[in-house]
Amino acid sequence: MPILEFKNVSKTYDNETKALNDVSFSIEEGEFVSIIGPSGAGKSTLLRCINRLVDASSGEIVFDGQDVTQMKNKELRKVRTKTGMIFQHYNLVDRLSVIENVLHGTLGKKSTFSGMIGHYTEEEKLRAFEILESLGLADQAYKRCDELSGGQKQRVGIARAIMQQPKLILCDEPIASLDPKSSKIIMDHLADINENQKITCIVNLHQVDVAMKYSERIIGVSDGKIVYDGTPEGLDQKTIHKIYQSKTSDLITDIGGEAHE
Amino acid sequence: MNKAMNQAFRKRKITYTLAFLVVLALYLISAYITEFDLQTGIKAFPEAAKWMSERLIPDAKAWERLPKILDKLFETALLSVAVTVTAGIGAFMFSLLGSKTTGFRGIINQLVRMTAAFFRNVPDVVWAMVLMFSFGQNILTGYFALFFTTFGLLTRSFIETIDEVSASCVEALNATGANFIQIVFQGIIPSAMTGIITWILYMIETNIRSSTLIGILTATGIGYLFDMYYKRIEFGSAGLVVMAIVVLVIVIETISIQIRKVIK
Question: Which of A116, A124, A153 has the highest number of chain B CBs within 10 A, making it the mutation to test binding with B?
Answer without folding.
Answer: A116
